[in-house]
Amino acid sequence: MTQSPIDGRFLDAAIAEADGGFAQGGIPIGSVLVHKDSVIGAGRNRRVQQESPILHAEMDALNNAGRQPAAVYRSSVLYTTLSPCAMCSGAILLYEIPRVVVGENRTFVGEEELLRSRGVEVEVRDDPRCADLMERFIDANPTLWKEDIGEPT
Q1: pTM recorded for the entire structure
Q2: Cα separation values, 25 from 2, 53, 152, Å
Q3: What is the 3-state secondary structure (H, E, C) of the chain?
Q4: Are 100 and 123 in contact (CB under 8 A)?
């Protein structure tokens, strides 16, 4: 599948968020929520930085978008560098975000099938930048990674 210039620009913005999180010592996952070709919320996984159990990148992007009318969510696209977990997928379903563009799912396959089964268009781009960043992080921080995705250590 050929990536559109618009998708590429917004995936680049999500990757920039992931890079920023990595530089802060956090888990390198980034996300942006886009409405009418404008970023309305950008976020990164801030579990380490904020000592939060729920601040995954997608949740941070939604939080940073602020309170929006339901129609905004229903006509937005969420770009994320990694396949969304169950918690983030629940938020996507709750707010009826119709399309999710995923940077990669080599290092973690989240709830893509659940999202698709509920009518969400999920596009996995298999971007090597996203996979490389996650692979480097997981190799250096396996315990923290398992904590983030809820696996026993």
Answers
A1: 0.94
A2: 33, 16, 21
A3: CCCCHHHHHHHHHHHHHHHHHHHCCCCCCEEEEEECCEEEEEEECCHHHHCCCCCCHHHHHHHHHCCCCHHHHCCEEEEEEECCCHHHHHHHHHCCCCEEEEEECCCCCCCHHHHHHCCCEEEECCCHHHHHHHHHHHHHCHHHHHHHHCCCC
A4: yes
Pairing of strands 30-35, 38-44: antiparallel
Catalytic residue numbers? 58
Task: Give the pLDDT confidence of 92-148 residue by residue, as tens digits.
Answer: 999 999 999 999 999 999 999 999 999 999 999 999 999 999 999 999 999 999 888
Name the token pair of 143.
């315990």
Compute the half-sphere exposure of residue 56: CA atoms within 13 Å on the CB side of its CA: 22
The token duo for 79 is 């770009």
Residue 46 and residue 99 in contact, taking contact as beta carbons nearer than 8 Å: no
How far out from the chain centre does Cα 152 lie?
A: 22
Pick from 93, 150, 98, 92: nearest CA to 121: 98
